[in-house]
Amino acid sequence: MTADLTARLRDVVGPAGVVEDPAGFLTDWRGAYSGTAAAVVRPGSTEEVAAVVALCRDLGVAVVPQGGNTGLCGGAVPDASGRQVVLSLTRMRRIRDLDVANSTITVEAGVVLQTVQEAAAAAGRLFPLSLGAEGSCTIGGNLATNAGGTGVLRYGTMRDLTLGLEVVLPDGRVWHGLRGLRKDNTGYDLKQLFVGAEGTLGVITAAVLELFPAVRSTATAWVALPDPQAAVDLVGVVRGSAGDRLTAFELMSRQSVDFVLRHGAGVRDPIADVHPWYALVELSDTLPDAGLEAVVEAALGESVERGVVTDAVVASGSAQVAALWALREGISEAQNSEGPSLKHDVTVPISAIPAFVAATDRALAGALPGVRVVAYGHVGDGNLHYNLSGPQPRDDGAFRARAGELSRIVHDSAAAFDGSISAEHGLGQAKRDVIADYKSPLELELMRGVKQLLDPAGLMNPGKVLPG
Questions:
Q1: Which domain holds residue 246?
Q2: For residue range 401-441, what is the model confidence (pLDDT) as tens digits?
Q3: Where is the FAD-binding PCMH-type domain (predicted)?
């Protein structure tokens, strides 16, 4: 079957579209999830994607869509059966259109996020999605997981940045929804079915994305804080002064920063004294001389007087700005150097962040004394990456054995504060089975109904998102 399938797929996508050495497509970038595949194909057009999906439908072969394979939940990795086809969109790299007057860019799913950012900048516009993997993640993956990143506070998630989609449905038909309209009140907003669906309802092949005026001035500050409540208070102060010019507000525990200082290259502590928490605050404006430094300094001065801020440094140039962001963006990779880690991507109401952190820290310390909590994230929108590393000295096997129990503590705590167990990474296979404990039976019934309607044979990325 495999040889015959590969031959028929080659007839569809040509020799260049069949991957002879599939190793790099079968394991995620962290090495946390691995599988095998009947074949790995890289179609070069929407028509080829549709033909591959139709062929697999006729043969009863499951399809696993894949972008840059930078996800954290195993959503783009095949299972171990060897009977699934990995469909990589990485050859679909065309920017089809850039409409400056309409402030939109139409791109194929395999375009790397950084490429979209650069194309927008060359046209005097901004595409605001920004995250650590932007040099390798693709727009298709960003859409499939409803990526958020550091700019959600001002610009929203991929749902908010997407105006239209082109999607290959599970039966091989193509929905041509590439409309750059901001108003279209003609029924159900179908594109939102596919954004965040992780390829379980169809294959996104292209998108119309919204652009914004280019940023011409910024102000960036590194702020020392006594506790998470101070971070919540500081968000309020800065928003009161800066309004929607507050673009990013990133919170980091000292443990997070320590890991980066230990393992990052060329990084240093911006503030000599050690503090329990830090925030990276960034303002931006479309005006070249917007006086943002004065705005942020005034907000920080007020916060110092109120006892909210302990110390702060305002970056004086692009090199210092890059150095501050390197501390924030280096956390995930630095934690990997400390052995196995448990990644949690939770969200709670912003006002509940301090109580959530205190309660969860306390519960974890009771369950596993010495556990190292690496908490950081986009506190301005309530999203915390509440990650765990094992105690010192390391016993990786013992820590891995406790993974389910420890993750349950974090997820239960998020739910107790009316939060979600996934803010921006998706469910994939990592959280597929536990989501049933945090969504109502009615929600799951409705989700399964949508899946049954669009993919009755269950061939689109099976084993992901929906519990068995």
A1: 217-332
A2: 999 999 999 999 999 999 999 999 999 999 999 999 999 99
A3: 33-214
Please report the beta strands in 286-399, taking only residues with DSSP state E, as ranges in sequence order.
Answer: 311-314, 341-342, 345-347, 372-378, 383-389
State which of 213, 231, 255 marks the end of a domain.
213
Tell me how far apart the alpha carbons of residues 391 and 406 are, in angstroms, rounded to a whole number: 13
Of the pLDDT bands very low, low, confident and very high (cuts 50, 70, 90), residue 2 is: confident
End-to-end Cα spacing for the chain: 27
As a whole number of angstroms, the distance between CA 260 and CA 254 comes to 10
Q: Determine contact, residues 386/375, Cβ cutoff 8 Å.
A: yes
Q: What are the helix and strand counts (H, E) for the chain?
A: 16, 18
Residue 314 lies in a domain: yes
Q: Do the beta carbons of residue 147 and residue 131 sit within 8 Å?
A: yes
Torsion over CA of 421, 427, 430 and 435, rounded to 10 degrees?
60
Q: Give me the pLDDT at residue 1, please.
A: 53
Q: What is the pTM of this model?
A: 0.93
Domain shared by 344 and 417, yes or no = yes
pLDDT in tens, 7-66: 999 999 999 999 999 999 999 988 889 999 999 999 999 999 999 999 999 999 999 999
Give the type of residue at 232.
V
Pairing of strands 345-347, 277-285: unpaired
Residue 439 lies inside a defined structural domain of this protein:
no
DSSP string, 406-448: HHHHHHHHHHHTT-BSBSSS--TTTSTTTGGGTS-HHHHHHHH
The answer to whether position 457 is within a domain reads: no
Q: Is 55 helix (H, G, I), strand (E, B) or coil?
A: helix
229, 235, 236, 242 alpha-carbon torsion, rounded to 10°: 160
Q: In which residue are the tokens 């907003």 written?
A: 189
Backbone angles phi, psi at 261, to 5 degrees: -65, -30
d(CA 360, CA 17): 48
Of 332, 359, 386, the domain-final residue: 332
